[in-house]
Design a protein that fits this description.
Layout: H1 2-24, H2 39-50, H3 70-74, H4 86-92, H5 108-119, H6 133-139
């Protein structure tokens, strides 16, 4: 009789832990109040200074897609969904062969700018005044 109680309690505990884990894994980003990330001013320089350098994703080597213009970069992202975006997943990977760039990781501030740009729809925007990255980084 005690064994049945033990198994029932154990089974109930496993179910409760499973429900807790399933409900705690959701996260919706709140983008209200964040300024628009401008592709040409904020995002493209991150890719060109870290990814599309000589011998890497510059379009001349065999290192995968060139990451030196909007068309090529947007082909590696899923607008609105950073978690399914290949180039974003590569820059947030901290170990293994897929870690990019291999020598020096992109700063958390730059990764945040790219993430917000993707969440905002990965648009090809051009802004001429100011920089939005400081506003984005202080608003999060």
């Amino acid at each position: 009789m005690k064994a049945d109680k033990y198994y029932h309690s154990f089974f109930l505990l496993i179910i409760l832990i499973g429900l807790f884990l399933a409900s705690s894994c959701t996260h919706e980003a709140d983008l209200t109040g964040l300024p628009e990330v401008c592709f040409n001013r904020d995002v493209l320089p991150i890719y060109t200074n870290n990814c599309s350098i000589s011998g890497c994703h510059d379009g001349k080597g065999a290192a995968g897609p060139a990451l030196n213009n909007y068309s090529n970069i947007v082909s590696t992202v899923v607008p609105g969904n950073p978690e399914k975006s290949a180039s974003y997943k590569a820059i947030i990977t901290t170990w293994g062969e897929n870690k990019m760039p291999p020598g020096q990781p992109i700063s958390i501030d730059q990764r945040t700018i790219i993430r917000v740009w993707i969440e905002q729809g990965a648009l090809q925007t051009t802004c001429t005044s100011g920089k939005s990255d400081e506003k984005i980084l202080t608003a999060r």
